TrEMBL record:
<keyword id="KW-0175">Coiled coil</keyword>
<feature type="domain" description="C1q">
    <location>
        <begin position="95"/>
        <end position="234"/>
    </location>
</feature>
<dbReference type="InterPro" id="IPR001073">
    <property type="entry name" value="C1q_dom"/>
</dbReference>
<dbReference type="GO" id="GO:0005576">
    <property type="term" value="C:extracellular region"/>
</dbReference>
<feature type="coiled-coil region">
    <location>
        <begin position="46"/>
        <end position="101"/>
    </location>
</feature>
<dbReference type="InterPro" id="IPR050822">
    <property type="entry name" value="Cerebellin_Synaptic_Org"/>
</dbReference>
<feature type="signal peptide">
    <location>
        <begin position="1"/>
        <end position="23"/>
    </location>
</feature>
<keyword id="KW-0732">Signal</keyword>
<keyword id="KW-0964">Secreted</keyword>
<protein>
    <recommendedName>
        <fullName>C1q domain-containing protein</fullName>
    </recommendedName>
</protein>
<dbReference type="Pfam" id="PF00386">
    <property type="entry name" value="C1q"/>
</dbReference>
<dbReference type="InterPro" id="IPR008983">
    <property type="entry name" value="Tumour_necrosis_fac-like_dom"/>
</dbReference>
């Protein structure tokens, strides 16, 4: 009988220790509640994150706009710099072409006659004294204007009189007859000269042609010569 009472008491103790009380359940519920935020807190966090994200987007957009403005400003500065460099280079070129002058006599050396011919021929003045700007070509006898401007030309022709062969030369611009220097006499030595100022465009060609049936002479004194220079640009 005593043994049965002992076992009954033991089972009662075990039952009490294994079944949680209401107090224990409240403690566990409180811990779970502390670990899991409420829906109101989650929405608040999400709103804060959305506001922060929107602010960051605005800031990024502003930075992009500022960067684009800097890029545009830099491009404008580079364009202006290139324009200034081109203008400086143009001014340098203009300062160079403003210095144009040449002078040459007919024969490179010795004495000799040129002509007569049945047609006009371009005279090639081969003994170059001055050719600043290299606008005159001693291989062709043609002057090519490097810049728009007013140019002055002079030519002096010399020869010995011959009643059927005048001393004569005509200035041409792009195939256009401009002025003729002409002299004819029966005996002695003969000289003639002429000069003119022309408005030329870049690339215009000026040359001196021997008049048909004319005959000229050049020698050690370089009596027959051709010269020209730029007066001013226009």
């Amino acid at each position: 009988m005593e043994i049965m009472v002992f076992f009954s008491l033991l089972l009662l103790v075990c039952s009490v220790s294994t079944n949680p009380t209401e107090a224990d359940n409240e403690i566990v519920d409180q811990q779970i509640s502390n670990q899991q935020p409420c829906p109101q807190d989650i929405h608040a966090v999400l709103r804060e994150m959305a506001v922060s994200l929107a602010e960051q987007k605005i800031e990024i957009r502003t930075l992009k706009q500022d960067n684009q403005e800097h890029v545009t400003k830099l491009e404008r500065q580079m364009t202006e710099l290139e324009r200034q460099k081109a203008e400086i280079e143009h001014l340098k070129q203009q300062s160079k072409v403003k210095q144009v002058a040449f002078s040459a006599s007919l024969l490179e050396g010795g004495n000799g006659y040129t002509g007569p011919f049945n047609v006009q021929i371009t005279l090639v003045f081969r003994r170059v004294i001055t050719n600043i700007g290299n606008a005159y070509n001693p291989q062709t006898g043609i002057f090519i204007a490097p810049v728009r401007g007013a140019y002055h030309f002079e030519w002096h022709l010399h020869g010995h009189a011959y009643k059927s062969h005048p001393i004569a030369g005509v200035l041409f611009r792009n195939g256009e007859h401009i002025f003729l220097a002409f002299e004819l006499q029966a005996s002695g030595t003969v000289s003639t000269s002429c000069g003119t100022s022309l408005l030329l465009e870049p690339g215009d060609q000026v040359s001196l042609r021997l008049w048909a049936h004319a005959r000229i002479f050049d020698g050690v004194n370089h009596d027959t010569n051709f010269s020209g220079h730029l007066l001013f640009t226009v």
